User: Fold this.
Amino acid sequence: MDTRAILVAAGRGERMGATRPKAFLSLAGQTLLERSARALGAAPSITAVVAVVPASDVDEARDLCEALAKPCVVVAGGERRQDSVRAGLAALPSGFEGVVLVHDAARPLVSIALVEAVVQAAREHGAAIPVVPLADTIKQVGDGRIAGTVDRDRLAAAQTPQGFRLDLLARAYERAFADGVVVTDESMALERLGLPVACVPGSSRNRKLTTPDDLAWAERVLRADLGA
Ligand code: CTP
Ligand code: MG
Assistant:
């Protein structure tokens, strides 16, 4: 089954406190966009990548994409993450039938094994996402007080790449937009229609880089990989 990746990289990355959009920040000499695009392109099942970047950075991203081993198109993203995903979906070839993976450029350390696990599960079940267990006990809070404790065994943190048969994702997205709903990941758009989404084990290495501390953590991980 033909499988393509949409790499969402159009966010501003406000919590990084940098002047450049987050995906264009350097991690050990390569931008997050470059690293995530290479990681997706290195997965045998992925045949092509759609990179969604800020409108002002499309030209720069095109140069970078030319160096990728797989075909890559670059399009401008939108205001919210879901607008960027929709722009990516619109850039798929017409008549495309297959699986689409949506991945955050802010997770540049994703492994080939995880990409392939999501692809396999999405092909089998129609929809699949990586999840990781929570380390902390999670509380409900309000008015500066603890209102209760959530059963941690029933919770997990969602990661990307999230994989879907295109027909399911397109339907779920159309409905979310028609209903004026904000979704923070793709899975949520399917869940609200009652469509099943399978879990695959995520990875602590596949952390979303949000703050300068996260970037420093990723630098250390890459340095440790090199045995430095
Ligand atoms: N994203 C996007 N378009 C948007 C918002 C987010 O393509 N309008 C992408 C980001 O580039 C990122 C991924 O979605 O790769 C996950 O979003 P997040 O980590 O929250 O990135 P930002 O929204 O850029 O960061 P922040 O929320 O800290 O401003
Ligand atoms: Mg954000």
Notes: The mean pLDDT is 97. DSSP finds seven helices and twelve strands in the chain. Residues 97 and 166 are 6 Å apart (CA to CA).
